[in-house]
Design brief:
single chain; 1 helix; about 160 residues; 4-stranded mixed beta sheet; 4-stranded antiparallel beta sheet
């Protein structure tokens, strides 16, 4: 019983001095504190689709051009493969939000069956890569080829709005 009386008395004493603690007479009460509302930063673009379509025509070997329209970045290029069985393939298309850059990497890959023979000559493979975005376009697009000459950057362009 004495413990309850002691606890009740301590709680009452704390409640009595609670109004005196926390603000001093030197700081007037101006109402609710103003809060800094964060400025809404626009959402970074996100890739919604990516594809590579082979093309019959091949512009200058080892080159690429970049175009941006609406919510789409289009890359048209020509990669060189080591033999007649090599085809253009989309190795990657990634967006780096921190750098605001789309990196497109086109490679060649062997598209043969085990018993198929290939011509032993360099081949030029045309392609069109399409990358669709939601939330705007990347500021920059860079295209890299990984073909017969190894990995090389072949194009870069400002694509953002």
């Amino acid at each position: 019983m004495e413990r309850r009386t002691l606890l009740t008395g301590a709680a009452g004493a704390l409640a009595t001095i609670a109004g005196c603690v926390g603000s001093s007479p030197e700081t007037p009460d101006d109402g609710p504190a103003a809060t800094d509302t964060p400025t809404a930063t626009p959402a970074a673009p996100t890739i919604t689709a990516r594809s590579l379509e082979p093309r019959e025509e091949c512009p200058e070997p080892g080159s690429a051009s970049i175009a941006a329209e609406g919510s789409t970045v289009t890359v048209e290029g020509c990669i060189v493969g080591k033999n007649g069985c090599m085809v253009a393939s989309l190795a990657s298309a990634t967006y780096d939000a921190e750098a605001d850059e789309l990196a497109v990497r086109v490679a060649t890959r062997d598209d043969t069956d085990e018993d198929e023979m290939c011509t032993q000559q360099l081949v030029e493979r045309g392609y069109t890569v399409t990358v669709e975005f939601d939330g705007g376009l990347p500021g920059t697009t860079t295209v890299t080829h990984d073909g017969v000459d190894g990995e090389q950057q072949v194009a870069q362009r400002q694509t953002g709005e």
